[in-house]
Amino acid sequence: MKRKTVFLTSSMLLLSSLVIDESHKVLAEGPNAPTPLVTETATTVPDSTTVSTTDPGSVEPAEAEEKAPLEEAKPVTATPETPSAVILHTNDIHGRMLEERGVIGLAKLATVVENERANTDQTTLVLDAGDAFQGLPISNASKGAEVAKAMNAIGYDAMAVGNHEFDFSLEEAKAYKEKLTFPLLSVNTYVNGVRLFEASTIVDKTPDVAGDEFVVIGVTTPETSTKTHPRNVTGVTFADPISEVKKAVEQIEANALAEGKSYNNYIILAHLGIDKSTPAEWRGDTLAKALSEYQALSGKKVIVIDGHSHTVHTATYGNNVTYSQTGKYLENIGKITLSADGQVTPTFITPNDTKNLVPNEQVAKIVADAKAAFDLESAAVVVANNTVEFNGDRENVRVRETNSGNAITDALYDYGRNGNFKNPTDLAVTNGGGIRATIAADKPITKGDIIAVLPFGNIISQIEVKGSQILEMFEKSLSSTLQTKEDGSYITDDQGYPLFTAAGFYLQVSGARVYYNPLAEANQRVLKVEILNPETGSYTPLDKEKTYYLATNDFVAAGGDGYTMLGGAREEGPSMDEVFADYLAKTPDLSKYVSVNSNERVIPSTPTPEPAPNPEPTPRPEPKPEPKPNPTLPTYRPGYYKPTEKKDDQQHPAATTETETTVHHSSPKGTTAILPKTGDAASLLSLIGLSLFSGLALPKTRKKD
């Protein structure tokens, strides 16, 4: 029996996000994954085989029949009469040379390939779909040359061009063609109307067997124009992926017909991805669906090996197209088996599957030499005389504004304000969980020190957001619970404000001021946000309807750490450590960062109550004099007056109750009325006059009777 094994790798992008399925099960750890939910390895594929690592729930692949999960996928044994093929593939390696927690590494990848090739009944092809060389400092130090050396030793047969192949310049991207011992493919990348790379290659490891050749076509995302530095793709155009692939197929089929050949198997190494933010016509799943409906490929086996979106996903389209993507960073190796009866079965090899493998000796030496060279380079001095301790302690960077966070975000802000993006940056943030070390004072700052602070290889990204998204973003940043003592009282800062519990999603800020009330309910803490006007140095209130440009790391930009209000199209630049190093090197005075916790950008406060309205005072009426009691009245009682019964010929309704009118006196005492002590001479004269008048009236009354 003769079996054919094809190994494909789609290189892995640098997005630092969690791999989570629809049931919210964590499958793998992204490099910038500060939350405690991250697990060690990607051991299984979830019930749904689509797993987004950038924006959970955002991937909406074209209609397809999804394959069974990893643990259920069962390779079919080929019959002796007809050769079968086994295809191994990875994507978005991004410089993951070393074996680490959850990362297989290049040396064990070589062992996997070696074991497959040891089977004399099968042939192994090794293919990669882009973004292999850039990513971590160990690979960036040689501009990807050491990764290329390892890939040559592993024995790759072809590779697609990814957007990050341009990160070290256009000249470096072209130089990979000479550094690699296998074809570097991109059917849709042009300079002045001429393809910059080969469009395709035909892999035939068994020339004596007709019909078992694999046509391999590479295609690159048009997002490359904004997902590498624009200066690196000056004069480069990226044509429509689907139409370019179809043109290549038509040309290949025409040539085959002229030569009397027939190709039954096509592999498309697509660095396109299935991100929702990617235009549909540029997506890998859209390409797969289009090829399943393409008459020129009817009756042929078509496999789309994708990368770019860092997604674990397999699917079938129509009756002849299989799609597969492994995720990122060598967290999985894909394995697709083509059986003798035509069945195509995609599965994944995990770090757990390779834990007992012995690393390939040749590749292990290449990796060790690369690390030694990097360690030597990391000793290079960036700042010779540093007098500031840049605090990167967990209890600071994940809790409150910190000088290291200020310096890092200032570096992002500075990069974005100096013409490196299409639009100048308005504000910059980075998650505290991505800051991992303190830089000591009174000693030089080395490249290694900076890498220790930002070890994940994240890259700077800029996205377009509304003011309302910025407000929601800061509410998320300030949503952690408060630290408390055993007695239940709050742990406070030196100004007496309660401190948050440490959370990786806490944002360090540049270009903005955020005022918040820590005692308010979560998601209701932001009092106001102000955006810096760099021309005047003044701050203006955030406009919820206005468009702003936010610089951050690619992990946060893609919605990582719970920032699902972000995401969307983004521009990308160099690695964070490179941006930070450049900023420190060109900043002569770092003393502005001497205060570890300045509370100048993320400002705890309490809302000032609105002043109560102050109406005009109501004039107080002059007090009315109390009625003067007359003790001579027959019904007089102190405090009460009871009218006498009226006797006449008229009928009056009988009173149901006796009514009494209360007469309030200023100071009633005893059983007789007491004159107010406030009386004056005029009152006394009036009383005497009244008495005289009463005395004169009595004789007249008697006379009348």
From TrEMBL:
Keywords: Cell wall, Hydrolase, Nucleotide-binding, Peptidoglycan-anchor, Secreted, Signal. InterPro entries: 5'-Nucleotdase_C, 5'-Nucleotdase_C_sf, 5'-Nucleotdase_CS, 5_nucleotidase/apyrase, Calcineurin-like_PHP, LPXTG_anchor, Metallo-depent_PP-like. GO terms for biological process: nucleotide catabolic process. Residues 30-82, 596-675 are annotated as: Disordered. Residues 675-705 form the Gram-positive cocci surface proteins LPxTG domain. The keyword Signal applies. SUPFAM superfamilies: 5'-nucleotidase (syn. UDP-sugar hydrolase), C-terminal domain (SSF55816), Metallo-dependent phosphatases (SSF56300). Residues 606-618 have a biased composition (Pro residues). GO terms for cellular component: outer membrane-bounded periplasmic space. Residues 64-74 have a biased composition (Basic and acidic residues). One of its GO terms (molecular function) is 5'-nucleotidase activity. Pfam families: 5_nucleotid_C (PF02872), Metallophos (PF00149). PROSITE patterns: 5_NUCLEOTIDASE_2, GRAM_POS_ANCHORING. The keyword Secreted applies. Residues 1-28 form the signal peptide. Residues 39-56 have a biased composition (Low complexity). NCBIfam families: LPXTG_anchor. Belongs to the 5'-nucleotidase family. This is Bifunctional metallophosphatase/5'-nucleotidase.
